[in-house]
Amino acid sequence: MRPSVPPPSAGALDATAVGLLVLLCALWGVAQVAVKAGNAGIAPVLHCALRSLGAAALVLLWCRLRGIRLGMRDGSLAPGLLAGLLFAGEFLLIFAGMDRTTAARGVVFVYFAPFVVALGAHRFTPGDRLTGAKLAGLAAAFLGLALAFADSLRLPSARELEGDLMCLAAAVLWGATTVVIKASRLARVPAAKTLLYQLGVSAAVLPPASLLLGESWTIRWEPPVVAALAYQVLIVASASYVAWFWLIARYPASRLAAFTFLTPVFGVAAGALLLGEPVTPALAAAVALIGFGIWLVNRPEPARPPAD
User: Fold this and answer.
1) Where are the domains of the chain?
2) Neighbours of 63 (CB within 10 A)
3) Domain EamA spans what residues (predicted)?
């Protein structure tokens, strides 16, 4: 039997949640640039494995310093292992998929995840129902994302199609991970412990996966590669993910997921600032459409008339 989870608030996110979400999306947008830089010197799945290993060590140290109990008597082991496997599969598919398709195409498919979250939350999380306004908002934000990368959405080659399908599968696993956390005892344990399950499982699973895929374990320890890996370990896969899982435990998952459409927009901005990549005029319209979609998902729901 699934443990009961207190229904989340049906209202809009408060200022703390919104501010933290925008910051996280900005950090994750820069991470897209870091992944590109790191992949220049480390094979993709090995790169992801090193990120998980380094972040797991940091989060474990944090738990020890903060006195966070890591015992299994709280009933979190089974959902924690499941979330860890989903997390590992998600990033294996993202890193491998991005190696086969373009970054712009991959981003569009990965950000199908909010739809998975909304459907899963509707089914498994009390109080987080999928309304017409939420669905319209998610669709608007997704269309804005597609508009931002429209120039890259041509007919794919066979290899690109393979990468696209990997990124779409990663989106399903990402959404499923969020729903598992929200609808299980993981919603009641410290966010650092929830993250440690995922980093620990992925750190164990991804190195063998890298070997099975025939990746080279030769690493070019050049300054940009080291900086990119350090950013992902210190900022993305540890601090930012702890904050994200803290948010998941306290706010409606579907409302949180809508904000993640901002991440690739920040990624485009980071690419322009750090790599000199061009920004197309369509980006402004895309940002407006994404913002409108987020507003639709998060606007207060009208009060229902009392039953007779």
Assistant:
1) 15-298
2) 17
3) 18-149, 163-298
